[in-house]
């Protein structure tokens, strides 16, 4: 079946108890079992598994073409579980512009977990090869990246990882399964912050790991999630499940809007450059054309005049809201260096746009008036 069909239909079986077409939300924390503790209905306790989460996980696995998926309380919780499942002594090679939360995790927590981490520009495959160590167990890529929209070659990275007996994990939050299929390109695991496009309405937090193979790792990750309690509420699982139904439509519109905004502002005299993989001058453009179905809904603007000019532009927008996060129906603007804090490598003149589902003409008009005074 085609992706659009899987997105609408997976995990959407009619409720056998009532015939309900929309899935029920089971809030029960505990499930009847036999006197000696054997599960009667597939679930025992909410922290281990629950019916709403199980529906969502079946859908997530089907959508990304993996054998299994796990849902967590947040994208960071999902990533933390995966990193904690690595054997002590392992080395993790991160992309240099990995999501700042994971960079802080690498700096502050990985050493305590007995792991080492280094970062490399993953657009440079020679540099990636040179950064490998005998104990490298994982390459952690993110594409397109946050906030510079760097695009890395997943097939080539999977090849490099596998030759060394390491795995490739891909944070595919910006692309979603609609625009990019990391498992088809050789990745072993995909991470999504469901807080972004999957939820899609800025009202739910969650994170997903999708595994190419069910294997022992699935059991280990489930065990880790149970023991650390990094589970989402059934209501949050349900909201993400609902978001998946319209994901293809929304992401296509987000991407079309972002392309329109990027093209309209490219070359604007108040801007040094527009970072968007859909623009022919973007260094990852050709690769993105091969690797993605469209270029995503995030655009970053490098404003002439540095930090002060960028903040002035952000203060003049009327339609865009100054707020962090992305992937909701409403357009957001953010000065990333201010919001990322200590681990930030975002340029001081950079404004990140999450292009929402408003008409792109209105968004372009708003940005033009905000840039006009510069
Ligand atoms: C937001 C985000 C995360 C973290 O997800 P949370 O749900 O906020 O924990 C990870 N990676 C990327 C690319 C993100 O944008």
What is the subunit arrangement here? single chain
The general outline is: globular
The mean pLDDT is 97
Strand order within the widest beta sheet: 1-7-6-5-4-2-3
The termini sit apart by 50 Å
Order of helices and strands: HHEHEHEHEHEHEEHHHEHEHEEHEH
> Roughly what fraction of the amino acids lie in strands?
15-25%
Low-pLDDT ranges: none
What does the main sheet amount to?
Answer: 7 strands, mixed
The gyration radius over C-alpha positions equals 21 Å
Helix content, binned percent: 25-40%
Coarse structural class: alpha/beta
Number of helical elements: 14
- Tally of extended strands? 12
Could you please describe the fold and organization of this structure?
- The protein is an alpha/beta fold.
- The protein is built from 14 helices and twelve strands.
- The strands form two sheets. The protein has a seven-stranded mixed beta sheet, sandwiched between helices. A five-stranded mixed beta sheet has the order 8-9-12-11-10.
- The longest helix has 19 residues, at 247-265.
- 50% of the residues are buried.
- Residues 74-76, 99, 101, 142, 146, 171, 173-174, 193, 195-196, 205, 207 line the site of pyridoxal-5'-phosphate.
- The site of pyridoxal-5'-phosphate has 15 residues, from helix 3.
């Amino acid at each position: 079946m085609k992706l659009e069909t899987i997105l609408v239909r997976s995990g959407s079986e009619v409720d056998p108890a009532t015939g309900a077409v929309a899935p029920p939300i089971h809030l029960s924390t505990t499930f009847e079992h036999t006197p000696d503790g054997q599960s009667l209905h597939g679930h025992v306790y909410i922290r281990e598994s629950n019916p709403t989460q199980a529906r969502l996980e079946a859908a997530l696995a089907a959508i990304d073409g993996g054998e299994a998926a796990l849902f967590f309380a947040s994208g960071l919780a999902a990533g933390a579980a995966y990193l904690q499942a690595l054997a002590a002594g392992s080395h993790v090679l991160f992309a240099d512009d990995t999501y700042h939360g994971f960079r802080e995790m690498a700096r502050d927590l990985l050493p305590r977990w007995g792991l080492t981490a280094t970062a490399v520009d993953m657009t440079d495959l020679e540099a990636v090869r040179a950064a490998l160590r005998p104990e490298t167990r994982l390459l952690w890529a993110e594409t397109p990246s946050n906030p510079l929209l760097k695009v890395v070659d997943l097939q080539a990275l999977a090849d490099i990882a596998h030759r060394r007996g390491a795995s490739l994990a891909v944070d595919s939050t910006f692309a979603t399964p609609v625009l990019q299929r990391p498992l088809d390109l050789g990745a072993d695991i995909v991470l999504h912050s469901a807080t972004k496009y999957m939820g899609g309405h800025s009202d739910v937090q969650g994170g997903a790991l999708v595994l190419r193979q069910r294997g022992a790792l699935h059991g280990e990750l489930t065990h880790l999630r149970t023991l650390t309690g990094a589970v989402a509420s059934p209501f949050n699982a349900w909201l993400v499940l609902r978001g998946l139904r319209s994901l293809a439509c929304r992401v296509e519109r987000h991407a079309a809007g972002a392309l329109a905004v990027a093209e309209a502002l490219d070359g604007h005299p108040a801007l040094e450059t527009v970072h968007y993989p859909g623009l022919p001058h973007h260094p990852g453009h050709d690769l993105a054309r091969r690797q993605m179905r469209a270029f995503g809904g995030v655009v970053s603007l490098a404003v002439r005049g540095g930090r002060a000019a960028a903040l002035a532009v952000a203060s003049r927008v009327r339609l865009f809201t100054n707020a962090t996060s992305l992937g909701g129906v409403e357009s957001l603007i953010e000065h990333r260096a201010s919001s990322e804090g200590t681990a930030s490598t975002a340029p001081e003149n950079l404004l990140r746009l999450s292009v929402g589902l408003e008409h792109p003409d209105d968004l372009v008009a708003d940005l033009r008036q905000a840039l006009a005074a510069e």
